[in-house]
Structures
1.
Amino acid sequence: MKIKLFIALFLPAVLAACQYEISPWQTDAYCPGVSVEENLARLRALEAEVGDVNFYQVAIVSDPQQYPGSFEDAIDRINQLDNVHLTLLVGDLAQTGIKAEFEWVCKVMAKSKAPIFPVIGNHDGLSFGEEIWLDIFGPLDYSFTYQNTKFIAYNDNKYEFENVPDRGWLAEEAAVATGETRVHTIGFSHIAPWKDDTGFSEFLQDSGFDLMIHGHEHNFDFWHLFDVDLDHYIAPETRYQEFGLLSVYPDSLVLQNCDPECAPASPRARSL
Amino acid sequence: MFRDSIALIVLLGVVFIANGAQANQAYWDVQSGSLMGLAHGSLGYSFNDAHDVSIGIGYVPDLDNHREMTLYSVRYQYQGDTVFNVIPSVAWQPFRFGFGVLIAGHDDLFVELPDQYPDGYYTPTAVRLVFNYQSVFKLTDTTEAYFDISILDVGLLTYVREPEFFQDNYEFFGLEGITNWGFGVRHQF
């Protein structure tokens, strides 16, 4: 009877920790400190602190959906890498686009020592995920410059959104402005060029991109098309604490696969 | 079409349960929160003094943090026989557990995969499983009030897979990260 009484008292006590939620489809996800704007401010502060550098690293994580604990382990590992100045999270933070899933991942993002920049994935666009995304992170397409390298995030989830990717915007963002010093131009989106999107990789190359980074496939991959000299790097899901690591030098970009020990990655030539 | 079928099932269920009211084991239930809507009305039937089945309709108006939508539910609950008499006129039944299917009616959510997607691309976004616990206070022989704690399907699945994440980041053994509360009242016919 005492055990029953204890359990009877414990279960309702959980009420103290619960949230009053009207339905699974609420859109007010609580994600403090992880917006693109806030991370850009952190990046600016970092750049002011370190000045001009000839080497830094970019961590690449993807598809944490449904495994926030493993994502946290991956971020913990990345936090131990002294040369990582920023992290790219290339989509699918949620599985079904609901508030709870975003909040779990936001908890982990807030623990990243380096500024972390997400791009929307196809699963993030389900339910009212777009509305949640716009509220907690900001625009679906955005860009920023760090150490004279321009990073361009774009939405290319064609089943969930219309008229994506925005090629005109991509070309504008990739173009080097008069008087601008540009070392590299790096694009990142959730999905690598679709099979039926012939010519898109060539379009990106012609627009001036030097490297493209994606997720979605849940496995490492690194390739360029036979007749296009633009590399596409695919980061795996974080379920097994795997991530990519990009080393940025003034005249080169070097990629490693970390599973979680890091080893060099080389692109293969393929057809689409 | 599927939502029309749900509405028909709910209507048939209302007729069935209303007929069952003559056995004095049918009840109506009104709940708020715990993922069931701002208000959720159900008709249910108890059998063997322990098992409840109910069907219901809920509603959420257009809010800053929520689109307007209708919610449909089919639920089963098990009522434990443990009773504590907290005060002479009120009995406390702290063990009531159940699960149900919650279906949302909104154009941006789907039960059947839209044509734009390849077959099997996604599971239905309008359909969720909800597991719940209730702490019930019997106010009279026929009326009871309760607090409800619910866990969504993905919350339970993710907690089972990675309990350490929730325990490290949320209170109450991590349950804060996956639970929601509501309240309601139930009255037997």
2.
Amino acid sequence: MFEPWAEKYQPHKLSEVVGQPQAIQSLSKWVDCWRRGKPEKPAALLYGPAGTGKTSAAVALAGEMGWDLIELNASDKRTFDMIQKVAGTAATTGTLLAGATGKRLVVLDEADNVYGTADRGGYRAIEQVLKEASNPVVLIANDQYSIPWTIRALCLLVNFRRLTQDSIVKILERICKAEKIEAEPLVLNVIAESARGDLRSAINDLQALAIGKRRLYIKDVVVYRRDREVNIFEVLGQLMHATSSRQARGLLWALDRPPEDAIDWISENIPRMLPEPADLDRVYEALSRADVFLGRIRRRQAYGMMGYAGDLMTAGVTLSRQGELKHVRFQAPSSGTLMGRARATRAVRDSVAKKIAKCCHTSSREARKHFLPYMNVIFRCDKKVANRIAEELELEEPEINYLART
Amino acid sequence: MSLVEAEEIWVEKYRPKKLSEIVGQDEVVSRLQSFVDKKSLPHLLFAGPAGTGKTTAALCIARELFGDAWKQNMLELNASDARGIDVIRASRDRKEPSELPSVKDYARTKPIGDFLYKLILLDEADAMTSEAQNALRRTMEKYTRTCRFILDCNYSSRIIEPIQSRCAVFRFRKLNEKDIAQYLKRIVRSENVRLTDDGIKAIVYVSEGDMRRAINMFQAAATMGKKVDAKAVYEVSAVARPEEVRQMLELALEGRFEEARSKLYELLINQGLAGEDILDQVHREIFNLKIPESDKVELIDKVGEFDYRLTEGASERIQLEAALAHFVLIGARLKS
């Protein structure tokens, strides 16, 4: 049976969590306070990038202290009642095993995802729970600033950083030893390097690589990476040499990705291959039209448009080219993760605009275009006025930070 | 939150509370005043450019008719935030639940206090789809006894005929320098700031006759320092509307596509700007570029096309990159 190594080798004690010395020190002290009564801050907010050990630390903590673990995730439909019901009672009553003196650890995972009108009550409920809690609560988030300051003020803030390549390699070495796998030098380094600080993905990569093998050679790693990415790169390379629309379209199937993803890969790389401005313009026209179809699919669920989008982004692109091709190194689309980050910024921006719109008898759009830039100036130059406006509009911390950004 | 009077944002703090305080619309105001004095109000349609006093006039009417109970007897909806027919429909008839109050539900209930009717203010009514406007027309007819509508729009031609014929139409004109100066000077008297004559001219120029923009700009410039002169105004404008869009376009015109693209990502991602807002600025910047007029026209046409595609739901990144690609093409053509 397939057992993910990321779970199999999870730490059982806080001391076993690797690569986060300050975070663990902070957490240990906090845990000690709970041993003796109740700490000044009953909640801890663990924040940082993906795969750096936040959830594992929380689980290890609970295990080590013999606390029951209750996990709530942002994907649960969080309403005021639900959090109250589950977390509230969980936080204030004892456990089955240890009775009234036992403690349970309540973990609120993806706590930065509660934002938004659907969960308007969610943060208020969390705040209340934290204030009344007699049990430890851990909040887990990627971005601490997406959580209202009123809640952050009640928490011990624990920062989890991206792991260094060395820490990741050490852990991979340990796993290899336990799984009786021998790895050529550099193999683990390459895996660790591509993980970019995310330990979980490094372990997953190692496991995927090692299936059915006793020894790992450097060429396996290269091949594995190639399988994941170069397949796409090969297709991209072939795309610009296709001579018929049928051939070009066929490549989309080979790409094995839905058109919304494929267009990102294509638009990231193909334009860089075109030194002729006329070609650049024509290719983008094709991509732009393809994207319009994708937009129609998004807006109106008109899935029949999928074919047109696919054709335009392949045949449309290929056959627009008349000039030379430049050889470039293909790369993954950077915009994906970047746009994800942008989404969070925009959510904040839009909620500020909405508040201003309501107060000033105008539309959100007008507020966004014509009030926000001037609010930005005011918030940067005069903190006193900024505070008064923030109070009047009932702005939350991320909204204030957005308005005061430089 | 809308029950609290805003005191900190000057646009609200200094918004006229009486019709007589509105500047630059004397004829309109005197006609409206006579309706209010007789307490006899037809449905109203206010048409005109942004920031000329339309919403203010509606709010003043509400205050003068209802006194302290004005907020309870007026429903304000902005049609651009909620365009569809659901805004008009009764809550129970809606396809999706919405937090916005329904015009129908509001129209059919009686006023609070000893008044004959309530007011419904529909801002940016020209953003309503014609389906919604037709539903609105029926509602207007049905509840004309208990409810008066005040519709507010930029272009009256976008309001369907049947609605126009049921309303008294008032055209608000664009404000001139005198109007804006007069109003800004009122603010100067209450807020301890200095406003020079060239400062006024600068504000008038940049705000393009829109009082709301003028006041926002004035407030922002005032927080930057004690004296608001032309320099301060342009500084604020530059900060609020940075040079970055121009830089991005210049890179594209020079053929440096990838650099232009990076700049675009910065605007989209770090600054969280909306694609349509960026295109708006691009549109404005085209006029400042040092290229032949015919190329400017071609670019405007293209940019307009990409803007339209955005409204169709296309993705910002790709459409804006495509716009940049066209700048690259124009730039290359000019070089040869």
3.
Amino acid sequence: MMNSLPSVSDDPAEIGRAFDRLDGSVKRWIWDQGWTELRDTQARAVAPILDGQLDVIISAATASGKTEAAWLPIISALAAQRSEGGEVLAGVKALYVSPLKALINDQYNRLQSLCELAGLPVNRRHGDVVGAERRALSTAPDGVLLITPESLEALFVLQGTHIPAIFASLSYVVIDEMHSFIGSERGAQLQSLLNRIELATRRRIPRIGLSATFADFTAASDFIRPNYGPEVCIIDSADTDTTDLQLQLRGYVDAGKSFDADPPPDVDEDEVHSVDKRAIAEHLFNTLRGKDNLVFANSRAAVEAYTDLLEQISVAHRVPNEFMPHHGNLSKQFREDVERRLKAGDTPTTAVCTSTLEMGIDIGSADSVAQIGAPHSVSALRQRLGRSGRRGQPSVLRIYVSEPEIDSRTNILDRLRSDLFQATAIVELMLEKWYEPPNVAGLHLSTLIQQVLSVIAQHSGAFAKQLFSALCSNGPFRHVTAEMFTQLLRDLAEHEIITQSTDGTLLPGRIGEALLNHYSFYAAFQSVEEYRLMADSRVLGTIPVDYPILVGSMMIFAGKRWRVVAIDAPSKTIQLTRAAGGKAPVFHSSGGEIADGIRQKMRHLYESDCVPAYLDHESVQLVQQGRSTYRQYRLATGQVVQAGNDCIIFPWRGSRITNTISVMLTVGGIKTGVDGLSISCHDVQLDELYAALADISAMDPPDGIELASEVPMKIFDKNDQFLGERLLSQAYAARDLDPVGATDAISLILDSMLQD
Amino acid sequence: MTDDPTTAIRPRDRDTLLQALRTGVVPRVGQQYIQVGRANEVQALVSDINRIADGGSGVRFVIGEYGSGKTFFLNLVRSIALQQKLVTVHADLSPDRRLQATGGQARSLYAELMRNMATRAKPDGGAMSNVVERFISEALKEAQETGRTPESIIRSRLDQLTELTGGYDFAEVVAKYWQGFDTGNEQLKMDAVRWLRGEFSTRTDARAALGVRTIIDDANVYDQLKLLALFVRLAGFSGLLVCLDEMVNLYKLANSQARNSNYEQILRIINDATQGTANGLGFIMGGTPDFLMDPRRGLYSYSALQSRLAENSYATNGLVDYTGPVIRLANLSPEDFYVLLTKLRNVQAGGDPANYTITDDGIRSFMGHCATRIGDSYFRTPRNSIKGFLDLLAVLEQNPDQDWSDLIPQLEFETESNPDLEPLPEADLPDKVTEISPQVTVTEPPQDDELTSFRL
């Protein structure tokens, strides 16, 4: 418990009285449930929520009754309001925002009996709610409203003039799964919508966040009430996680493809299914068939490859295929069909899906979850794990990691078995209940564009000054300065997103209007764009770009090294040419930012001797191979390895700092490429590299925006395409570069080179 | 519409006028005392009114910049129409009140128009019952004169209504009113008036109350206005004038489909008016130049409207044509504004020059002060400067020993803003919390001066 306020007492007697403070109808409901007492979290939440002024974060493990901890006092306060007599004010009384439709449907059913006793109607609104249920909200808003951020956005755009009436008597806002919002575009959208509700109702409405636990609640407090984070009351439950976890990490060796003979470059890596993929697919088929499961793969290509394999296996066994792909490029109809099958209890289905869709889709809970390839973050893995075992069953997680076969020419990165170590490090950190600190430095300009258009639609036009005040200076986009905002408006006008009438009112432009009139406008997030890789007018494949690629830099694809010749951001194409050099490591882009803590944990695992119990026989072998390579290259002390004409740097830092070092070196004239864990520097000797690094270290940390201007591909989020070069660089620098951290890391690398 | 400054002004008119101007709204009465210039424009509308009273029709677009006095002009025209025995209805368009919609916004515009229905005897609105009452009393009068039963006279008059779209139910509702009148059923009378005012929102309610199968809803607003135009003539008035202000709200609609369907209704109104099929019905719509001419969102974006509303290409360089459907209100000049201030002084003094509280020099000094504080807009969009001037006069009147030259430099002007987008006051935060954590960091007030005058 931290930052607690005197009004939240830890006095046991006080907590004991919590039950007595609840309204009669809520007490009756608790008795009806057969509960003998309130749980600790629930009791401690009563006083601050009944207070009706404080913002509260309730943090506890899943299945510890934290939603009830919020609802019991809220419904109690609303029931008391109602029984105090007088006229019942029109308008929604409590607003519940959840990232998932499934959670809303679940809450909808669970709240019915409680709210019925208190005389409150429950309404829900998300993409699948239609007809009369939808109309009830606009004709007679009342009671509890359960909604997704996207549907809330739609309410602002389509019924802007009714917003003050709908929320006139709003007393509480509840944010479920709050941790999943922090630092994301969707989170920025939610903050903005909550702020706009308060602007419309002209008063501050207490917010209750339900969240997984954090070691440090600063980011969470500042998320729930920007600028006033220290005043947020935090109820951090001491209850331990009661759900069982069954975990296995399976290692595989890719022995199927020979790298000695150069395979023809036009053969897609995934078209020929290698032996390891077959083995993984066989294991999936044998263990998952007959139940509902989710299999997460790190790219669309992998999703396609595994569903293809699983279908072949099903055909060979003459059984109906239960394995369906699910990713952003598939048609909506197909995806909905898979979702329906998963929801229906009688059709066993396994969805093979990409990480980028994990928050957007409604696939309910599954019997088990599998992860193919190393995950990239602890929170993402937890999120996926949370999809299984909700019905009192244990959570089941299988992770499949495949590493290439080693021969005399295999390079150091593959010998280190870095994917397997990354997966193990993430699992270890998850078991330690460690979380990535959310990246809150982002400017979220893409979402700001959405909000600008939405405010304009809500008020039928707005002035630049009002927009800046409502969204930036007094709203959640406070990192955006007036100067940047002016530039943003000009960029938008250039793309016909907004236009200005003669009195200065900003209105939607031709394209902006088309955006607003389509339902896809309401979502702030989109699946990560994949770039097409071309070599001599042949398409090699597609990759999600999550690390900076500069013209002249090196990259690895389909087991080969390539040099980037040209980049065309609008058509999302990268032109490559074959580069000379040793055999390339098999580097799998994992589709997300990797935190410093994970890389540090990996290094710790390399240096330790313990073997976690959840590793299977094959992966234990792989771990030992990795550790012996680590010792062989003396990586415990050295951070740079010379390999032929190349130098490989091991910064042991997260992807932000690793990327920044790579960009700095490229700007300094060295051809570099990020291979996940390491940075490979091409055609350079140790002493040259030392000189280059020393040059960088001698100067002050460079300006992030200048570095960012060297990176050609900066379009990541939905509306980034409407931004000009300068703002893109500012956004990229804020989100993806850390020049100060990189300079620190470089001085450590220099020290290690001196010792050598 | 000329006024003689020596004419005494009734204290009631004086107070209503001054009160309206000081709160920043356009007065509903007494406009003639402060009307400045625009004689030709007024004359053009007077001839429209006469034509409507003759059974003709008309449509005019009054186009001017923000604050150029469109609303004032519309109210002036409306008061003239009332004098000519027309019934007037008026409403401001808003995102929730449009000519055409599917979510109840058109019915809401209709209901607003009906709430504001005015006659000469009831110029402040709410005249629907009076109009229906008048229809009945006219019939009763004729019954007395001819010896026929009132019932048969009412029926034969209502027969004319049934020929128009939706007329059968309209006539049925008026007949119900007569039935209520005849049998002393107040509830029935009230329900009939409620139906006519567009206040029934479901067919079931209307059927239970009045036995009709339809209600006035989004789809038939314009048809109902045409019926109403005929009905007020049957009730002995000379016609119906519909004043729609703030048409710029259609231009601001974010949904292009919604915008175009509203423009389609306007096209229908123009067609009916120019072809003479809407008898005794006139429309006058106020909007900004953007609303008319913006090639992408304005009326001109709808090509059928552009050709109908294009201005006379010869009427340039000082040549004028007041017979086209578009009337442009030029902004006031400083000279006009000076005349306006002298008229305000006159109104405030009740029309008696002996009571003037400020000299001509004082007025000039006030204008000079405005010019330095708020620039050109003090006379172009004079709402705030009028308010400031009347505040000054009020102080001078109640403190006769004060001199205007001391007061003028202290005058401040309010700026207008959308209150919904202003930041919440800090006082809204719970006090105790602020005390506990003094380390609260509030971001520096940003330098957003550039945004105030932001131009793309």
